[in-house]
User: What shape does this take?
Amino acid sequence: MRADVTRLDLRLRRRSLLGFTAGMGLYTLIVVALYPQFKNSLSLDQLTRHDSAIAALFGATGTLTSPAGWLNANIYANFLPLIMFLITISYGAACIAGQDEDGTLSLTAALPLTRRSILLQKSASLAAQAVLLGAATMICVVAGHGFGLAIPAAHLGGITIAVILAGIDFGLLGLSIGCWTGSRGTAIGIASAAAAASYLISSLAPAIGWLRPARYASLLYWSVGNHQLTSGLTATAFAVLAATGITLLTLAGFGFRRLDLR
Amino acid sequence: MAVITAAGLSKTFGSRRAVDALRFEVGKGEVFGFLGPNGAGKSTTIRLLMGLCRPTAGAVAVLGLDPVRDGAAVRRQVGYLPGELALHPRLTGGQHVRYVARARGLTGLGFADTLADRFGAVLDRPVRTLSKGNRQKIGIILAVLARPEVLILDEPTSGLDPLMQTEFERLVRELADDGRTVFLSSHELDQVQRMADRVAIIRDGQLVVTDTVAGLRQSAPRTIEFAFTGPADPGWFSAIDGVRVTGSGLRQLTLAVNGPVAPVLRAAAAHDPVDITARPADLDELFLAYYRHDPAKEPADAR
Assistant: This one.
């Protein structure tokens, strides 16, 4: 498969992508470097130990001062998904619907490429952006070994894969809505709302009984909300995240095939 | 064999009918001018030819292929310049050229360099810093770059200065002489008259005429002005087929004449004319009559 469209889109987003990645890496290094200051803080532990609602809001797994709890509460349960979704949803909404709205898609659409090829190349660009952010964060966390933040490699790799997959899924949701509606704004709005709902459900489900069954509908639950840093990524979670992506890509394909371009 | 065929081609957007039952053919090596006022359906027709949107009814074929079903195969042999050219603002013209060349599998950029020299295109600066005319030059290079069998150009000279318009006309003629087919839309009548072998006029989504430029010229009205010694009566010419009085003064009459002039001269001679002025067929007036939907001015045999 040709990769000209993938390369072009990565080039067009190079500055913002590198900026987000550098910012996320720097934030991660600061969180990692601060860990020794907090790892023996009993009061911080007590904050979450006796109040499941607070623990849920922090995304704490086990104790807040354990390596997994510290990373989850400061990076994996909230900040990393936020930046990840910012990148992937904005690209997903822009790469077809946005470029069609501003007219630049006609440059690519006039090439001897099938729509399937264009869609797959743009999905590859989406995946590359998610992988770059996830991998950069993981590398910075690995540096945390020197600060006493020891996480099993399999668990760290597992949650990294899970966050990347969730990012790709929400990006594909934006892309798919863009393909069906031709509207970048609609795509960003719906995909962002879905991501916010997913976050709320995943973070509040442990504290609110009636919300607990709904956590299975949250991609955040399957990626970061189910003790992935302490227990690893399960095959079921991987399958849910991967199947969601394949389904959304298929839906995007149907939408793009019938979309009238400018 | 026709290179482009539209058969009952229609497209609606919601309740709005953009083009309605278009029927035309464009032959190999032909320069086909597609004229019409803004919003007439020119760009929609072109997007249908490119497979960028799907027809609601009817069929379209380019080089015998369906632009939607066989889109990649069609576009491999078609160069396209959109009406509202949008390039990536941060990329240079050269980066655009290399992108299109790579995606089209071109190995050399010699022809692109030749075109850039010919049009004086600026390829080393970000597109956002270029004028509309300079961006349009890049669009022309991107469309012609791969020397495609068919060129589909939507308002190609928009923003170009007169010198570059002339250069563009030369380029189109060279490509047509080389056996390539050119479909170009425009609302600049003069230019299309000079470039096109045949012309179609679209208005409100419907084709109102398709003819050669020479054929259209034959059907365009000539203007004849008479001056008489006494008061002139428009009724003197009202019974003559193909004649319409377009202006009158106390001793003057202006006529638009389609067809033979002998009956007009005979009718005028009976009233002692003292002067006569005749102007050749006015194609602009004919086009504008079509544009304005002025059936009285449209010659019946060209409809």
